[in-house]
């Protein structure tokens, strides 16, 4: 088991190094393609191994990571000085100080530093099956760019190994090192084009994520000082008063909120839009932001029912709704996708913070489907950008004539984020059902409002984009199928087939894959069953015939835009009978922009409340 986990971490780094050094198209393309079956097979071998597994590591690995910590923070300090960013410099110096204090306080502990359970194995699977195809997509996408294709693809594949290491770290000090390594990766990828806007946005991502790193170190100090614990498994087995560890958990929660781009720290993720589109695809789907719900899921059994949990629900629920509303004001297609990610990350963390079996089931299910759908949608955004030169939704008018296949994929991706029987819808359904159980608790009564309103606004958002894409004054007469690169088509079809397959077989998928993950987190029965491919959740049933029927109806909806015709002309009197065309449009929600700053201030207040009140500092 230890060898497999090590291989899953180190192999992407080796492949990335070879690609970076050789710099040959044939090597880059074939090594990237071969990475997909290899990492998928390794993830499968880990998944079928008995769980959970604690893995000892040689002592020199810990020493190497400590040395690496200081080197990484030194590099952050260098970047801050080089780019004249006082916040980066100040936070890097603070991190060096806090890390030194943590290392002085730490005492030898026999607990293994690597921990692999079903949740870790699931993330390994997502990294392989969702992340590697983005690297394959990048091998062709970067041929449209003037920048170094080989270096870019190498960075993406290296990042996959970093993510695998991060979710298998049991030692929280190691987790800090990997948390900040993902920050380094975001800085390198966002600033890849090296123009002023790219550098500015990469520095924004750096200092904002440094705040998350500072929060982890403060949490570590609190945990070590109060109970002498600095491993996730030791936290889960802690039998003393929760008051002794709640401050540390509060700081860890803050780091998750920052990494999960929750308002007002969402701007670093929006800034990533200046990078090549595969960066957005990898950040939003398989890596980076998934650390946020992962971390909340890790500590969920401990914080369940605490004030910290309730404040996290309020904070993430607020972002779930507000980010979906703000997305309605956007015109840039990638920014729309980014805001919807921020929104759904809020829902994932909200569900994880509640900590009941069904809530955690919803969180894990949404993590999986969101990974596939967002990887899919950002790949299609890249196709629009490079093949059809479309970046804004207003440029998507009559897109159905110019890019019918790409629009069909986008339509399917949006449906997978919104409608029955896809997993994101099922996750929201579970959350609404679970929220109804809390209606007698005043502190949770806002929960059902959050889930209902956020889900509704996201549905409006996706339908707005699709409405513009198929809008036309007359029937379609010239549909042109543009030949797309084979690698683009492969990745698109890969995601399409995966989403369709796990949707059709969502009942066995949940019982055989999701439920073991949930049981591994909270060690409680999960009321989810598979009855002849029908999904049974407590007293509710989604029958297999309903799943197939819904998919057939959605398939028909795919075809409707080809036949629907909108025409609204009017003749004014005294104008010789000349026609004046009227154009259909969707509400732009621009009025919301006027209060966006106030919403950010309120979100910041919620952040402060989480750490001060939820963390027991007052």
Shape: globular
Tell me the strand percentage band: under 5%
Low-confidence stretches: none
In percent, how helical is the residue content? 55-70%
Our Rg estimate from Cα atoms comes to 24 Å
- The number of helical elements comes to 24
Arrangement of strands in the largest sheet: 3-4-5
Give the overall average pLDDT.
Answer: 86
Distance between the ends: 44 Å
Strand element count:
7
The assigned structural class equals mainly alpha
Largest sheet: 3 strands, antiparallel
Tally of structural domains: 2
Describe the model.
With 618 residues, the chain is mostly helical. It has 2 domains: 1-235 and 255-298, no CATH class; 344-564, no CATH class. Helices cover 69% and strands 4% of the residues. It has 24 helices and 7 strands. The chain has helices at 2-22, 25-47, 59-82, 86-105, 118-141, 149-166, 172-190, 196-227, 232-236, 246-259, 267-271, 277-284, 291-303, 307-327, 333-354, 357-387, 399-402, 404-418, 423-436, 446-470, 486-504, 506-522, 544-559, 596-614, and strands at residues 53-55, 114-116, 528-531, 534-537, 540-542, 569-571, 579-581. The protein has a 3-stranded antiparallel β-sheet. A hairpin with a 2-residue loop joins strand 4 and strand 5. Helix 1 runs antiparallel to helix 2 (25-47), helix 5 (118-141) runs parallel beside helix 16 and helix 10 (246-259) runs antiparallel to helix 13. The longest helix has 32 residues, at 196-227. It is globular.
């Amino acid at each position: 088991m230890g060898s497999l986990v090590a291989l899953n971490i180190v192999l992407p780094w080796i492949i990335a190094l070879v690609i970076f050094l050789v710099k040959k198209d044939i090597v880059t393309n074939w090594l990237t393609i071969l990475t997909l079956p290899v990492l998928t097979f390794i993830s499968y071998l880990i998944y079928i191994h008995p769980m959970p597994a604690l893995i000892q590591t040689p002592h020199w690995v810990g020493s190497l990571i400590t040395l690496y910590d200081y080197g990484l923070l030194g590099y952050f300090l260098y970047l801050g000085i080089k780019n004249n960013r006082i916040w980066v410099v100040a936070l890097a110096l603070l991190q060096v100080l806090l890390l030194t204090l943590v290392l002085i306080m730490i005492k030898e502990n026999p607990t293994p530093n690597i921990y692999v359970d079903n949740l870790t194995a699931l993330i390994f699977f997502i990294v392989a099956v969702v992340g590697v195809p983005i690297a394959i997509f990048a091998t062709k996408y970067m041929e449209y760019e003037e920048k170094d294709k080989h270096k870019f693809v190498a960075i993406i594949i290296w990042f996959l190994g970093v993510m695998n290491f991060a979710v298998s770290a049991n030692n929280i000090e190691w987790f800090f090192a990997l948390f900040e390594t993902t920050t380094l990766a975001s800085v390198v990828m966002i600033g890849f084009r090296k123009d002023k806007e790219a550098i500015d946005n990469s520095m924004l991502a750096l200092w904002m994520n440094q705040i998350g790193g500072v929060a982890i170190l403060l949490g570590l100090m609190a945990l070590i000082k109060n109970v002498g614990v600095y491993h996730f498994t030791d936290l889960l087995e802690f039998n003393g008063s929760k008051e002794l560890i709640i401050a540390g958990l509060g700081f860890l929660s803050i780091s998750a909120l920052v990494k999960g781009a929750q308002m007002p720290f969402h701007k670093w993720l929006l800034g990533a839009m200046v990078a090549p589109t595969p960066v957005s695809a990898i950040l939003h789907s398989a890596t980076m932001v998934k650390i946020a719900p992962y971390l909340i899921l890790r500590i969920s059994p401990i914080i369940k029912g605490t004030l910290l949990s309730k404040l996290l629900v309020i904070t993430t629920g607020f972002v779930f709704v507000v980010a979906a509303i703000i997305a309605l004001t956007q015109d840039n297609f990638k920014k729309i996708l980014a805001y919807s990610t921020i929104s759904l990350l809020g829902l994932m963390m909200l569900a994880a913070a509640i900590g009941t079996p069904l809530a955690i089931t919803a969180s894990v299910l949404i993590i999986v489907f969101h990974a596939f759908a967002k990887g899919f949608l950002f790949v299609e955004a890249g196709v629009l950008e490079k093949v059809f030169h479309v970046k804004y939704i207003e440029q998507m008018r009559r897109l159905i004539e110019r890019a019918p296949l790409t629009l069909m994929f986008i339509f399917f991706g949006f449906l997978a984020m919104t409608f029955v029987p896809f997993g994101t819808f099922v996750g929201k359904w579970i959350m609404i059902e679970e929220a109804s159980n809390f209606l007698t608790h005043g502190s949770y009564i806002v929960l059902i409002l959050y889930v209902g309103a956020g889900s509704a606004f996201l549905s409006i958002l996706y339908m707005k984009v699709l409405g513009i894409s198929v809008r036309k004054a007359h029937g379609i007469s010239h549909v042109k199928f543009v030949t797309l690169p084979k690698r683009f088509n492969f990745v698109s079809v890969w995601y399409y087939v995966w989403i369709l397959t796990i949707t059709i077989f969502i009942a066995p998928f949940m019982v055989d894959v999701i439920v073991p993950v949930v049981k591994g987190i909270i060690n409680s029965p999960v009321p989810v069953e598979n009855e002849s491919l029908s999904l049974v959740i407590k007293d509710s049933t989604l029958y297999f015939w309903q799943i197939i029927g819904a998919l057939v109806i959605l398939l028909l909806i795919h075809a409707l835009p080809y036949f629907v015709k909108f025409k609204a002309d009017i003749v004014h009197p005294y104008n010789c009978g000349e026609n004046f065309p009227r154009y259909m449009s969707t509400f732009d929600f621009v009025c919301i922009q006027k209060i966006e700053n106030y919403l950010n201030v309120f979100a910041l207040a919620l952040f402060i409340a989480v750490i001060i009140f939820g963390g027991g500092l007052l």
